[in-house]
Write a structure and sequence with these properties.
heterodimer; A: 276 residues; mainly alpha; MetI-like fold; 11 helices; B: 255 residues; Rossmann fold; six-stranded mixed sheet; 9 helices; 10 strands; globular; ATP hydrolysis activity (chain B); AAA+_ATPase (chain B); transport (chain B); ATP binding (chain B)
């Protein structure tokens, strides 16, 4: 049981490290124009010169995958951080307000949750010119809802613990209890929510790009590449679809694996807290 | 309201006076109804009763942690002017509270040293922390190497020792021990009772000890009170007031 866990930890950490190194250093080591068209070498099958082959306008698929993953990771991380900050603030404020204010905030959260994220996201990107930041704003603004719920529930359950009573009896102010006892207790949960949000945000970015609403079509993005490759796949040229797909799936699984390890690290202590 | 504190000989105001307390958690089903209890200065009162009879609620009311629906609380002669965060800091810290379960009463992220020092930090007396925590840890029997550990790295007994030290760190005039020893073995129980009694002998602090261990409370306290007579749900119509008993061989008056 421990051995499989260790394997999972090292696999996740190794994969995430490899992805980060690749998206940081490959563009530095191969400063080529990943958007340059080379019709003389279009749709070449994987070979030594082009390990992932070339696409329908002769661009190297491996390089475009790396550049695309870079954009996706950037969007994913920034959007996840933004949504976590919004969600934590709203959830904590809602729990702190209590009563009518709390009910009002949570009903607003319910209303937003009832609309599919992607639909709301499309609505937001449609208001801007295509680019990276509209996608970040769209994903960030649609994904804080679950974090707000988690943080609110956590604060509510923490607030009635005896250690808060002990702090009050020790003369702590409301602010001190919030800063010293409640926030540190909520941060691991919020951090976990942020990490889990990264793959989700990457998938949303890809979905928006695939629908033609995300990044400009010439930019290398995993969603754009899969969209572009649809025609060639029908002709039997599988590599422009398969490799971006793998670049989408493997890093997201690795990040999710990392989040799983984190969750296990949080939980044992929690269990011991509740056990007695 | 014939408060026991008004008896001749005890001219100081009682450490704790609860009068006509009605309290509960759910509307229309009070846990306590019209309960009155007085703990004189320097006196040790044991509150006895089975689980669920409201004795812990009464302890929380006495420590200003639970707002009663009716009734008044006087601490050292001063009427309570608020509950929880709204209580004036001096009134809140007048009562040092030890809870039944050290696990839930300790912030799992603090080291034992930080846990004991927290009330000093919260009241702007952080400079005294090193000195006072060291002395208190010594008194409750926690070695220096334990003070750097976090709650999940120590036993229940060790954690409860730290919680007792935390309750004493602000020199409270009243100690409220809510089933303090329920989770502990006999030797730790004896050690912690000794710590509390040493502190009381030194400072003249009063004690409200809540529990269901009759033998322990009758030996520990000057007098014991049956919580059943204080307004527990099944007894409330019969005896709305405290039925106070004095065990034989124990002086009835406080020091």
């Amino acid at each position: 049981m421990n051995a499989t866990r260790t394997v999972r930890v090292y696999t996740s950490v190794g994969l995430v490290a490899a992805v980060v190194l690749a998206v940081v250093f490959v563009p530095l080591l191969f400063p080529v124009d990943e958007q340059a068209v080379d019709m003389a070498h279009k749709l070449q099958a994987p070979s030594l010169a082009h390990p992932f082959g070339t696409d329908d306008v002769g661009r190297d698929v491996l390089l475009r995958c790396v550049y695309g993953l870079r954009v996706s990771l950037l969007v994913g991380v920034v959007a996840a951080l933004a949504s976590t900050v919004i969600g934590t603030a709203v959830g904590a404020a809602s729990a702190a307000a209590g009563g009518r204010g709390d009910r009002l905030v949570m009903r607003v959260v319910d209303v937003f949750s009832s609309v599919p994220h992607l639909l709301l996201g499309i609505f937001i990107v449609a208001m801007f010119r295509p680019g990276v930041w509209p996608v970040v704003v769209s994903v960030g603004l649609t994904h804080w809802l679950s974090t707000a719920r988690i943080v609110r529930a956590e604060v509510l359950s923490l607030r009635s613990r005896p250690f808060v009573d002990a702090a009050i009896s020790g003369g702590a102010s409301r602010l001190r209890v919030a800063v010293r006892h409640l926030t540190p207790a909520v941060l691991p949960q919020a951090g976990l929510a942020a990490v889990l949000m990264v793959p989700h945000a990457i998938w949303h970015e890809s979905a928006l790009s695939f629908l033609g609403l995300g990044l400009p079509t010439h930019r290398a993005s995993l969603g754009n590449m899969i969209q572009d490759a649809r025609g060639t796949l029908l002709a039997g040229d599988w590599w422009p679809t398969l490799f971006p797909g793998l670049f989408l799936i493997v890093p997201t699984l690795a990040i999710a694996g990392l989040a799983g390890v984190w969750r296990e690290r949080i939980n044992p202590r929690r269990r011991s807290e509740l056990m007695l | 309201m014939s408060a026991a504190g008004n008896t001749p000989g005890a001219c100081d105001p009682p450490a704790l006076r609860l009068s006509g307390i009605t309290a509960g958690y759910e509307r229309r089903s009070p846990v306590l109804r019209d309960v009155s209890l007085t703990v004189r200065k320097g006196e040790a009162v044991g509150l006895l009763g089975p689980s669920g009879c409201g004795k812990s609620t009464l302890a929380r009311v006495a420590a200003l942690l639970h707002r009663p629906w009716a009734g008044t609380v006087h601490l050292a002669g001063q009427p309570a002017r608020g509950w929880r965060y709204r209580a004036p800091r001096a009134q809140r810290t007048f009562a040092g509270v030890v809870f039944q379960q050290p696990r839930t009463a300790a912030d799992p992220r603090l080291t034992l040293h930080a846990l004991i020092a927290e009330p000093l930090r919260a009241t702007g007396r952080a400079v005294e922390a090193t000195d006072r925590v060291g002395r208190l840890a010594d008194a409750v029997g926690l070695g220096p190497e334990l003070l750097t550990r976090r709650p999940h790295e120590v036993s229940d007994g060790q954690l409860q020792r730290a919680c007792v030290a935390r309750a004493l760190v602000l020199d409270p005039g009243l100690l409220v021990c809510d089933e303090m020893t329920a989770m502990l073995d006999a030797s730790t129980t004896a050690a912690l009772v000794t710590v509390v009694e040493d502190y009381r002998a030194r400072t003249g602090a009063a004690l409200l000890a809540v529990g269901h261990d009759r033998t322990l409370l009758e030996r520990w306290c000057d007098r014991t009170v049956e919580a059943a007579g204080l307004g527990a749900p099944d007894e409330r119509s019969r005896t709305p007031r405290a039925r106070e008993t004095t065990p034989a061989g124990t002086p009835a008056s406080g020091t």
